[in-house]
Predict the structure.
Amino acid sequence: MARSDDEYDYLFKIVLIGDSGVGKSNLLSRFTRNEFNLESKSTIGVEFATKSVQTEGKTIKAQIWDTAGQERYRAITSAYYRGAVGALLVYDISKKESFIGVEKWLKELRDHADSNIVIMLVGNKSDLKHLRAVSTEEGKEFAEKHSLSFIETSALDATNVEQAFTQLLTEIYRIVHKKALTNEKNPSFKPALGESVVVRDPAEDKGTHKKKCCS
Ligand code: GDP
Ligand code: MG
């Protein structure tokens, strides 16, 4: 690690969502601190944690928000989603209800998050092979149907945890980078270094953007 934690090219806010108990907090602690807890400590959850990754020659600092258990009461506030450019939508491969719950979380994102938010569907607890209730195929199909990326992880044995975050961050970076290139004539659109970047339609800046809205 040659660069200090404060040197980065982009800062992306990522939110963790999904039913209670699917492993969101452990995915976060595994990714940012390489720690895993068998006990669920939802009440002492952190607000967010950060970690920088290198991708395509850039340093991306991820600011990853965890729910601290509010999802149990469906009381996640819109502040949680504000400015988020990516979401890891997590279910537990050993709990069918948590997979069924994914629809509800997608609706929550449509209602509260930026319409261009990049979403990755994450089937966590892949280590629980003997208890699997959702096949990899089901997860993949659902993700394809809703144009989401898809990965299976285990916060317990660390399988694919780094990959899940890095893949999401890379996808966001590519979108932002491409938009910056196609908007070179509009320098104000270019994301400033070290600033939180919201992936958005340039038309929005001109006030001509019609928000896709809820039904
Ligand atoms: P959250 O409510 O979504 O934040 O879930 P937690 O991270 O608190 O995890 C809930 C429970 O699932 C805890 O007992 C964790 O130890 C357990 N857990 C989390 N991730 C995994 C995993 O990948 N595999 C297994 N076997 N258990 C996990
Ligand atoms: Mg939690």
